[in-house]
Amino acid sequence: MPEFIPLISQQEIDGRIKQLGRQISADYADKDLVMMGVLKGAFIFLADLTRQITIDHDIDFIGASSYQGTSSTGQIVFTKQPDLDLENRHIVLVEDIVDTGNTLLKIIDFIKLSHPASVKLCALIDKHERREVNINVDYSCFSLDKGFIIGYGLDYNEKYRNFPAIYDLKP
Ligand code: IMP
Ligand code: MG
Predict the structure, then answer these.
(1) What is the arithmetic mean of pLDDT over 49-59?
(2) Ligand 1 pocket, residue 126 CB under 6 Å
(3) Which of left, alpha, beta for 51 (phi over 0: left; psi -120 to 50: alpha)?
(4) 2 with 170: CB under 8 angstroms?
């Protein structure tokens, strides 16, 4: 049986998402905003974040997958394309966790083909240790040096996304 060590509580997550919602609402006050969730990991984070954003905005999803077990395969597969027309709109990409950064880099390149007005990055967790590419996470809730975490949308082989808080996984 894997061991789950509590890392970030529901209360801490709620508090940070409220702050982030206020910040995004202020930064995009006069802009045509699309919050673009990266499936599957961001579905719970975006569901909570969108309800803390007080300005009009659209929601869309892009599907991308790179992980098996606790290590990135290095290859990403697009499992869903955005539905909305993104041209001249301001896009905030919403990810569960940025690790090497390779997934987001490929998604950014793909989104830019639609000629958006801007693309910024929002991640629940900004994990530093294994970063391989030079990308800046514009909005993040929590920073983490290393480790493999699950819960609140984050999975290990598709399990544990339903845990309401975030845990360190010791296999
Ligand atoms: P990257 O391409 O290495 O940045 O990988 C990002 C993706 O890997 C995330 O969207 C997650 O699906 C997955 N991932 C990276 N670290 C973790 C973790 O600690 N727990 C669960 N999934 C993770
Ligand atoms: Mg995953």
Answers:
(1) 98
(2) no
(3) alpha
(4) yes
- pLDDT of 72 above 70: no
**Would you list the DSSP string of 5-56?**
EEEE-HHHHHHHHHHHHHHHHHHTTTS-EEEEEEETTTHHHHHHHHTT--S-
Q: What are the tens digits of pLDDT across the range 74-133?
A: 678 899 999 999 999 999 999 999 999 999 999 999 999 999 999 999 999 999 999 999
Q: Is the CB of 140 under 6 A from ligand 1?
A: no
- Looking at the chain, the number of H-run helices and the number of E-run strands are 3, 9
Distance 150 CA to ligand 1 centre (A): 10
- Cα dihedral sign for 108, 45, 71, 155? negative
What is the CA(99)–ligand 1 centre distance, in A? 5
Question: Which residue reads 């391989």 in tokens?
Answer: 132
- Stated pTM of the model: 0.94
Residue with tokens 């999803």: 61
